[in-house]
Structure prediction request, 176 residues.
Amino acid sequence: MTEPAPVLVVVGGLPAAGKSTLAGCLARRIRAPYLRVDRIEQAIVAWSALTHPVGIAGYAVVYALASEQLSLGLDVIVECVNPMAATRDAWVSTAAGAAAGVVEVEVVCPDPAEHRRRVETRRSDVEGLVKPTWAEVLEREYEPWIRPRLVIDSMLTPPDRAAVEVAAAMTSARDR
Prediction:
């Protein structure tokens, strides 16, 4: 019997939308590796001469790590802002290169007042990482999505229920 194809789940969205909460909940639920671009970029800064923003370096490391895990037949969860078509396309290519399915998730917080409250009150759980200000979130380049994806409204969908929705999408992606 053939092993089911692994699935790459890419959880994207603006800072403080709820990406990390969802990705962590999903990782615990399905017991899959969880790769977080923020953590990797901060490690690059802490251990090299580079400073923020590190550009494509963090994403390049995560593309390579995700590819390796997928090649081992493991599902992988990646969490990152994923702001541009180029970064999104690279995740699709990463999955295709490992003959894996892909589930693209965009986490949104559509209420500007709530989103701002989250940005201004959250603490960083990545040592040394300075979170963006509300002004920086508003100024961030974030291209509109042009292909279908699973949109999770973090104001309406609790993380545990969102994880169930993503897991169901993974089953569909595995069956393609």
Notes: The beta strands are 7-12, 34-36, 76-79, 101-108, 150-153. The first strand starts at residue 7 and ends at 12. Helices lie at 19-30, 37-47, 57-71, 85-97, 112-121, 134-139, 159-174. The radius of gyration is 16 Å.
